[in-house]
C-alpha cells in the first residue's frame, strides 16, 4: 500500500500546454505503479499516487523564487 | 501539538456539492481534535489540522488517474 | 481513498510509556476511519493513515525545541 | 540538498493584500536558504523551498476551522 | 526540480530482508528519475527522491494497524 | 500558525558530529520563527517546525542514492 507524492512546478513541458497534461499524468501513474510492482512487488491496486503542481512563484531555489532563479541563471550563462 | 493532514479527492459527498462542504470540514476538525484529546490527551488548542482536496485527475490508483480507475472498475463490475 | 497523516511528538501519554502505545495507535486508526466514513462516506478499506512520531528535539515551537520550550514555559509559569 | 516546506494560511499580512505577496515569498526563500547555509553549511543552489498557502477554511485548530476559531477567540476576549 | 516522496511499510520483499534493500532503493531512484525525464523532460540531476519506510504498526488501513488488518484479512479469506 | 518542515540528509556538518546537533536545531527553530515573524508577522508561539533527518541511503538524486551520487560526482570531478 505505497503512497507516492510527486511535486513539480506548474508549467507545460509539451507545446501548447501551460501545465502537466492529463496524458502525462496517466503516464506517471502507470510508470510509478509499474516501478513499485517490479521493484517491491507492490499491488498497483493499493498504490496511491498524489500529484501536486506548485506555482513557479511558490517554489524557491538558491534563495530565489524559480522565476527569479531562472532569470538569474540565464543572465549568468548569457553574461 | 499534533499536526494532522487529511488528503481526499475533490468531490462532493452530499447532494448538490461538488466538493467537501464547510460543515463537513468543521465536523472533521472537531472529530480529529476530540479523538486526539481522548486517545492521547492532546490539547485541541494546539492541534493543527490541514485539509487538502486533490483534483480527481491528480490522484492515481492502480496505475490510472481516479477517473480512469473508476471507469475501468465500473466497466469490470458491469462487464 | 483518503490519506491521513498524524504527526505527534514521541512521548508517552499513559503511565509507563515513553511513546504512543500500540493500543493508542489502534484507537487512532479506528477513530480516523470512523470519522471519515461518518462525515464523508469514505470506505475504511481505502483509508490509509500514516502515524509519525517525532523526537521532542526535532519539533520546534516559539523558536525553541519542544524540550527548551517546555522548560521556558514552566519557568515562566512558576516564575 | 534540503527540502523546506512552508505552510501558512492564505491571507494578506500587509495592507491591500489578501495573500502572501511575491516580495514576501522572495524574502522567505532567501531567508531560509541563508539560514541553512549559515547553520548547516548547505548550498543554496541545492536548497528547495515549497511554499503552500492553505485556505482559512482548510485549516483547523481547537476543533474548529480557523475562521470559526478566530470568531470564538475574539468573542471570548471581548466577552 | 521535482520532489518525489515514496512511503512504504517497513518490510522485506525479497528473501532474507526485513526491509527494503539498498539495491531496491537504487532501482527506485533510477526508475523515478527516468520516468520524470521521459514523461516531463525533467533533469535527473535536479530530481530529489525521499524514501520513507514506515513501521507496520504506524500504518493504518480499514481502521486497523497493518498487522491487525492482515490478520483480519487472512482470517476472513481462510474462514 | 505556520507549519515548517525541514528535511535534510542525516550527516554531521561540524567536526565530530554524524548528524545535526541539538545546538544547530535550536538555531534553525529560532531562525525560522524569526523569519516568519519578520516577513509575515507570524507569532512564534504558533509556529511549528518539524525537523526530519533522512538517512543518506533514503535520499535519491540524479537517479542514484546520495552515497552513490557523491561517489559518481567526485569520480567525475577527479576523473
TrEMBL record, chains A, B, C, D, E, F:
Keywords: Isomerase. It comes from the Bacteria. The keyword Lipoprotein does not apply. InterPro entries: 4-OT-like_dom, Tautomerase/MIF_sf. The keyword Glycosyltransferase does not apply. Residues 2-66 form the 4-oxalocrotonate tautomerase-like domain. Gene3D superfamilies: Macrophage Migration Inhibitory Factor (3.30.429.10). Belongs to the 4-oxalocrotonate tautomerase family. This is 4-oxalocrotonate tautomerase family protein. It comes from Novosphingobium anseongense.
Amino acid at each position: 500500500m505505497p503512497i507516492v507524492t510527486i511535486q513539480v512546478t506548474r508549467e507545460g513541458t509539451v507545446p501548447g500546454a501551460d501545465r502537466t497534461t492529463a496524458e502525462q499524468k496517466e503516464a506517471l501513474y502507470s510508470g510509478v505503479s509499474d516501478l513499485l510492482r517490479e521493484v517491491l512487488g507492490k499491488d498497483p491496486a493499493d498504490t496511491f499516487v498524489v500529484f501536486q503542481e506548485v506555482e513557479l512563484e511558490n517554489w524557491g531555489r538558491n534563495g530565489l523564487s524559480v522565476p527569479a532563479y531562472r532569470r538569474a541563471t540565464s543572465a549568468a550563462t548569457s553574461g
